[in-house]
Design brief:
Helix 2 packs parallel to helix 4 and helix 4 (136-171) runs antiparallel to helix 7. The radius of gyration is 20 Å and the shape is globular. It has a two-stranded antiparallel sheet with strand order 1-2. The protein has helices at 22-43, 55-82, 96-120, 136-171, 174-188, 196-216, 220-236, 261-264, 274-298, and strands at residues 124-129, 253-257. By secondary structure, the protein is mainly alpha-helical.
Length: 310
């Protein structure tokens, strides 16, 4: 594995920010775009007085407006400052459909497994089966949320595992890039008073996405997985996703907490559960072993070409 490049060896024709400046640029672009986005969303009633999404429509608007404006700023930076192509940030055309769809299925199945473990441990109690199917309006809202989460999750992966990881790798190496991008991802998902297990799971989430993208040498799979994860947690069980309530009846089974926060995740939802921790650790080990095995197949005296599929 070439530690100085990832995804593609195609050179940058512009300027690459230094390793420790890249996260600053990322934060600056997020802040600069978040201010007008928040003003727009507040102006049209999509955010309440506390800056939280106002119902399902507010959440959909937040996912679309905030993340699209951030992505436009990052895309402009990549195109006009770094002058790099899409392949260098993990968006090569080859394998896009298969990677995205396979990741989406995995992203739906994984939270189903986490929630099943919580239920089997007696920490969730079922209330109703498929309540969303009784309301056409709810199904339309759930479909709309899928689009919103597809946009939000894909953009986060493009920015963190695509752009940020690749630019820092070119300036230092892959290990430093994964650590910095994962820590910034954790910081940007941190809130005051957040339980330590929630923070730890966010970091594991970022590391899991990183080793998956390194293993596959593109970000299509993690884009699909992140989308499926967020959408299924938000709409599948009537539980919070990242502490937010999607405001729709459960697509599969409505659950209420009946156990300690350590198992249920409390106000954070399943993402704050110890079962989520275990699944993410297992996933990291799986992809880390896959990476190590492929390095061994190539041999210690050779590098895997950064543009090759692994």
């Amino acid at each position: 594995m070439n530690l100085k490049t990832i995804y593609s060896t195609s050179p940058a024709r512009g300027w690459l920010p230094w390793a420790f400046l890249a996260p600053v640029v990322c934060l600056a672009l997020a802040i600069v775009t978040e201010i007008p986005s928040a003003l727009f969303l507040e102006r049209f009633g999509f955010l309440d007085a506390q800056g939280e999404p106002a119902g399902t429509q507010g959440l959909m608007a937040l996912l679309l407006v905030s993340f699209i404006t951030w992505m436009l700023a990052v895309a402009a930076w990549i195109a006009f400052v770094e002058r790099r192509n899409a392949g260098t940030i993990g968006l090569a055309k080859a394998g896009a459909a298969a990677g995205l769809s396979g990741g989406l299925v995995s992203g739906i199945v994984m939270p189903l497994a986490v929630v099943a473990c919580i239920w089997l441990a007696g920490a969730y109690e079922p209330v109703a089966l498929f309540p969303a199917t009784r309301s056409p309006g709810a199904l339309i809202a759930i479909a709309g949320l899928f689009v919103g989460f597809l946009v939000q999750a894909s953009i986060e992966e493009i920015i963190f595992r695509g752009w940020l990881t690749s630019v820092i790798t070119r300036r230092t190496n892959l290990i430093v890039a994964v650590l910095i991008s994962s820590l910034l991802f954790t910081l940007m998902h941190f809130s005051r008073g957040q339980p330590w297990l929630v923070t730890g799971n966010v970091l594991l989430f970022a590391l899991f996405a990183s080793v998956w993208s390194i293993s596959s040498n593109n970000i299509w799979g993690v884009m699909g997985w992140h989308t499926g994860w967020n959408w299924m947690v938000a709409t599948g069980f009537d539980v919070p996703v990242t502490g937010l309530d999607a405001g729709v009846p459960a697509l599969t089974v409505s659950l209420v907490p009946a156990g300690p926060d350590l198992l249920t995740g409390g106000a954070q939802g399943p993402e704050g559960s110890i079962f989520c921790t275990l699944f993410l650790v297992c996933g990291i080990l799986f992809f880390a072993r896959r990476i190590a095995r492929k390095q061994g197949d190539v041999g210690p005296d050779h590098n895997i070409p950064a543009g090759a599929q692994v």
